[in-house]
Recover the amino acids of this structure.
């Protein structure tokens, strides 16, 4: 049975100038590493036993109904506006309507050069492909809005970075790949018709109830505020929150140099290219406001009365930090078993985080130990914890244990385990990759088989820096 993907490609129907038609590049020896059958079923993809899977998801076979293309966008990278980016190593095959009626993009990443590749080779190596597969699926299992991984293949070809590395292709799905940078490019180029077309498209695809740019901005602000608070609640650091990596749908996208906190440290940076800590753990709450200000700026020309637009958008941006704080308090409140935390709980939460920082305690395991009632046994500053705990008891909800068990994962994709998994796969052993995926699919469940995945890194295992790996 051949694979059937029920494409319905709305982006390809947009007028000229939004994308460049582009077929994926043929590769030497495609072989399948993983195919996400549960996700495929959700996307109404059938015939998943097909022998063509490797050929399709490495880009050698363009499936029937696909309209392969590279999308155009621009964006601010580390605060600097780059007037043209675009899919330089990604190709949108097309869209499908999933079982819930939601339109979802299917995109190959690492599938060869496009007109937007600039100096890049359009390819990906195995490491970032497997990292994105594992981490995006783990984020989904944690309940975080995210793009997802449908397949990973080896190309059978080498990709040259500093050294030759095995080439690979990731197939991911997304609510869409519309980025802040997609709006920015048409706005910066003063292509008002295209800006309006993109606005209409985005509204009808994601926010059909929206009736004005002000309302669209508010929807995206709300989604992104919630998203960043959720990232922070799991110790997630995106690492490259450029405006081209910031979606209108509110999904997490582009898992490059991302990482999870081991020990709690608000200033933690992993990404090797983030030299000034612009995208440090705690800075994410500030930089998302900056990103939304760029979206607002791009939307202004859509409003007839410019002064009114600027006043309204400015108010919305100024209100965003409070919105993030509320989302943050809610998320971290639940981690402490407080069902409806308010601003007054911020101090209690902050004091707990400070305690953890002073103990150099593992972020994920501390919250889980607090959930299990075993945290005090591990601490040096016991008296301080006891004093904090007295205040905490007063605020805990009646169903605190359940709330905490649902909010504090047992396992997360730890950086050192991801690195070890990649090393194994480069050596031809995919078992750690598959094991991580299986374990991370149920992050809130205690499972004896995966006790090792709960361990923080030993001194010599600590990942100091992550790389875009492009
Ligand atoms: P990223 O920081 O990974 O989101 O990518 C930023 C821009 O660089 C996007 O336009 C990518 O398509 C492009 N890019 C990254 N890696 C490559 C590559 N290997 N070949 C071509 N373009 C790339
Ligand atoms: Mg990107």
């Amino acid at each position: 049975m051949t694979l059937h993907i029920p494409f319905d490609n709305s982006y390809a129907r947009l007028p000229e100038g939004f994308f460049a038609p582009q077929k994926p590049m043929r590769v030497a020896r495609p072989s399948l590493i993983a195919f996400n059958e549960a996700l495929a079923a959700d996307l109404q993809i059938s015939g998943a036993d097909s022998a063509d899977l490797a050929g399709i998801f490495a880009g050698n076979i363009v499936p029937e109904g696909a309209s392969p293309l590279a999308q155009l966008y621009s964006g601010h990278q580390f605060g600097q506006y780059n007037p043209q980016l675009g899919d330089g190593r990604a190709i949108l095959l097309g869209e499908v309507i999933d079982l819930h009626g939601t339109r979802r993009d299917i995109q190959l990443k690492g599938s060869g050069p496009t007109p937007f590749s600039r100096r890049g080779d359009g390819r990906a190596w195995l490491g970032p492909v497997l990292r994105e597969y594992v981490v995006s699926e783990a984020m989904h299992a944690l309940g975080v809005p995210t793009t997802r991984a449908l397949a990973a293949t080896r190309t059978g070809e080498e990709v040259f970075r500093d050294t030759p590395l095995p080439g690979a292709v990731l197939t991911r799905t997304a609510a869409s790949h519309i980025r802040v940078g997609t709006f920015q490019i048409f706005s910066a180029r003063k292509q008002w018709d295209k800006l309006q077309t993109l606005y209409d498209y985005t509204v009808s695809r994601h926010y059909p109830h929206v009736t004005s740019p002000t309302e669209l901005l508010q929807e995206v602000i709300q989604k992104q505020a919630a998203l960043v608070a959720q990232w922070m609640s799991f110790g997630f650091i995106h690492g490259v929150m450029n405006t081209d990596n910031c979606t209108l749908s509110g999904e997490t996208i582009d898992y490059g140099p991302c990482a999870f906190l081991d020990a709690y440290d608000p200033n933690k940076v992993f990404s090797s290219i983030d030299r000034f800590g612009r995208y440090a753990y705690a800075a994410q709450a500030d930089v998302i406001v900056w990103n939304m200000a760029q979206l607002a700026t791009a939307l202004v020309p859509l409003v007839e009365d410019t002064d009114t637009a600027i006043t309204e958008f400015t108010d919305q941006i100024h209100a965003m930090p409070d919105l993030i704080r509320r989302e943050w308090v809610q998320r971290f409140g639940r981690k402490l078993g407080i069902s409806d935390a308010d601003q007054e709980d911020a101090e209690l939460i902050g004091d707990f985080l400070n305690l953890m920082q002073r103990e150099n305690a593992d972020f994920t395991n501390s919250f889980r130990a607090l959930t299990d009632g075993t945290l005090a046994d591990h601490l040096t500053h016991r008296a301080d914890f006891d004093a904090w705990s007295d205040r905490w008891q007063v605020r805990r909800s009646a169903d605190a244990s359940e709330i905490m068990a649902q909010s504090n994962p047992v396992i997360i994709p730890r950086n050192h385990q991801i690195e070890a998994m990649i090393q194994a796969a480069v050596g031809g052993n995919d078992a750690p990759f598959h094991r991580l995926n299986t374990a991370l699919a149920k992050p809130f469940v205690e499972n004896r088989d995966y006790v090792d995945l709960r361990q923080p890194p030993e001194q010599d295992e600590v990942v100091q820096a992550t790389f875009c790996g492009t």
